[in-house]
Amino acid sequence: MFARTYYGTHPDMMAGASNADLRDRYLIHDLFREGACVLAYTHADRLIIGGVRVGAGPVSLPRQQEPPSAAGRSLLERREMGIFNVGAVEGVVTVDGTAFALAPKHCLYVGMGADEVVFSGSGARFYLASSPAHRAFPTRRIGLDDAAILVRGTAEEANARRIHQMILPGTCDSAQLAMGLTILEPGSVWNTMPPHVHERRSEIYFYFDLPDVAQDRVVHFMGQGEATRSVVLQDGEAVISPPWSIHMGVGTRAYAFIWTMAGENLDYSDMDVLDLCQLM
Ligand SMILES: O=C[C@H](O)[C@@H](O)CC(=O)C(=O)O
User: Fold this and answer.
1) 163 lines ligand 1 (CB under 6 A)
2) Ligand 1: which atom is nearest the Cα of residue 271?
3) 4-278 to CATH, choices 3.90.550.10, 2.140.10.10, 2.60.120.10, 2.40.50.140
4) Ligand 1: distance of its center to the CA of 164 in Å?
5) Is the pTM of this model over 0.95?
6) Buried b vs exposed e over 249-277: b needs ≥16 C-beta within 10 Å?
7) Which string of b and e fits 85-109 if b means at least 16 CB within 10 Å?
8) Residues facing 92 on adjacent strands
């Protein structure tokens, strides 16, 4: 059912970890296979991350397979999900018979208890993130225009960007899932500068919209502030940030990324910002 399971890690495990170890533990790749819904399971606040590339026909969200008591039931029986159109063409997500057309970069929140989720639209690409939920909130579409927007950074610092808060209190209610989309201005390349940690939530960054998918890269920084490490990502890849890890990146050119958080609270401002002089 899951292409990969990612286990939790201790900060001490960063010491001596090779780049291959870091990629194995934190990098989520190969999410987009034509006609398939690829899912990865992480023990980071039990987030499920997925990708869908629609081919000739519609693609369904898989149903639970384990344990036997849950087999055949909806994956969202006790979960909620955010779905973003991360492709270039409009796509459609149908939830229990209701079709939601999603333009590129628009999002759908799917509440706990939804039974059938079907993706359609030839060539459409969707990014999915799901966390456990304790309560059903209404399924709804959130356009980029519906988001609360934080304008951050400057061109001089090469980090001018717009943070679109899409699944967060005030824009869309959820049980614990928080998601948004940050778009860098042309010429700006640094995100989440200065970086922060939030002990009470895990976070996953998914990078996309790199201008040249063959050549452009994002160098993503992780680890504790005093012992930073880096992972190089391509377009369409995601990286897990444990609650003890910073998460910031620099691209070879401007790009966009989707941030997903889950954990103890939905307070976006619950973060400890590091001074750049603390980074080592
Ligand atoms: O916890 C918040 C997340 O890391 C992002 O919203 C930060 C971000 O998009 C940015 O500053 O560029």
Assistant:
1) yes
2) 1
3) 2.60.120.10
4) 9
5) yes
6) bbbebbbbbbbbbbbeebebeebeebeee
7) bbbeeebbbebeeeebebebbbbbb
8) 101, 120
Q: What is the DSSP letter of 139?
A: -
- Hey, what are 12's tokens? 């001490």
Residue closest via CA to ligand 1's atom 7 equals 192
Distance CA 71, CA 41 (A): 17
Is the separation of the CB atoms in 128 and 83 below 8 Å?
yes
Question: Residue 236 region, left (φ>0) first, then alpha (ψ -120 to 50), else beta?
Answer: left
Question: How confident is the prediction along the chain (280 residues), in pLDDT tens digits per residue?
Answer: 999 999 999 999 999 999 999 999 999 999 999 999 999 999 999 999 999 999 999 999 999 999 999 999 999 999 999 999 999 999 999 999 999 999 999 999 999 999 999 999 999 999 999 999 999 999 999 999 999 999 999 999 999 999 999 999 999 999 999 999 999 999 999 999 999 999 999 999 999 999 999 999 999 999 999 999 999 999 999 999 999 999 999 999 999 999 999 999 999 999 999 999 999 9
Q: What is the ipTM of this complex?
A: 0.98
User: Ligand 1 pocket, 148 CB below 6 A?
Assistant: no
The reply to whether ligand 1 has any atom less than 6 angstroms from the CB of 271 is yes
Give me 26's structure tokens: 């934190």
